Amino acid sequence: MGGMNTVSRRIEAIESDGYKRGGVAYPVRTTFAQGELTDTKHGRMIHPDERELPIQIDIIQTWPDGSVKSADIVFPLHLPAHGSGEYTLQIGPKILPVVKQPSPVEITQSLEGLSINQGPVTYAVNAGGYNGVDGATFNRDVWKGKHPTGVETRGPKAFVRPGSRTPFLVAGDGTELTLAGPVEIEIETNGPRTGRVRVTGQYSLDLSFSSFFTFYSGVSWYRHTFSLTGDAAHITSVIFEDTFDLADGPLQSAFGARINSFGQPTSWAVLTDGVTTIDIAAHNAWSESGYIRYESEVDGRFRVIAPYTVDPIVTFYHFLPTPPADHYHTPAAAMVADPHITVLD
Question: Would you say the pTM of this structure is higher than 0.85?
């Protein structure tokens, strides 16, 4: 607890998968008594070493008086591999955050769709001809000419060629189901730490889908969660297709899989042309009903073929303007290995 008009929550974070956490934001669901948190501007997060961290409070439920009943507290973790730390959330009318969010997520909407800027990468999500994330351009000038690996990097780098197929379904008899009409796009949260976009649409046979895209400040990857609504018993798989712009050399790929510390089966693929790299990773990557497959072609066309179950399909896409170098970026295997975060009081 805290002093007069100030309330504290202790939040424990544990890294159990062997990956350094260098500032990527994670949410933790937190509840509040009526009247405790009346304005999301009056909250701050304190690191175990007592420095203040950027914070984002996304309201889930409110009390009848308008105060916050539950919220996702989004903040960056700084933990060594296999490390842990106790963070402190402070809220109250006299609490004002001082730290500003560097490279805040910014989402702008137009008739064509969305443009999402997360610092190093700008994405496009098109309303017409929807096909997921239809563009990803890395601003290589963030390193002022040289990446920490020593590679010379300047100017924009486009990673995704527009015009790939929309996510499509495959029925048990081999029939492919494509979108039956336009999609609707809604901005659910617009930074500064993370931005979340919801896309909904309709397939034939009374099947609809929901996609949630989460974009993270200051990094070059995003999360995609896909689920179906309706009688999908005849659907065997969902296919996500992209055409990546990896044309500077022969396309090389590698694949891996493991069980993370939550007991989730995960898998990943790494594609590189020796100059730039794309990591793709997936949660719940296999089960009794099947397993996720990755297909890569020499022209950069890439598919994630996911068996359909009742569970949402969760994938991550990471864009790197260098060859693979795990010492300088978050490997795909870490993107599907969330830390354990618990509100202690």
Answer: yes
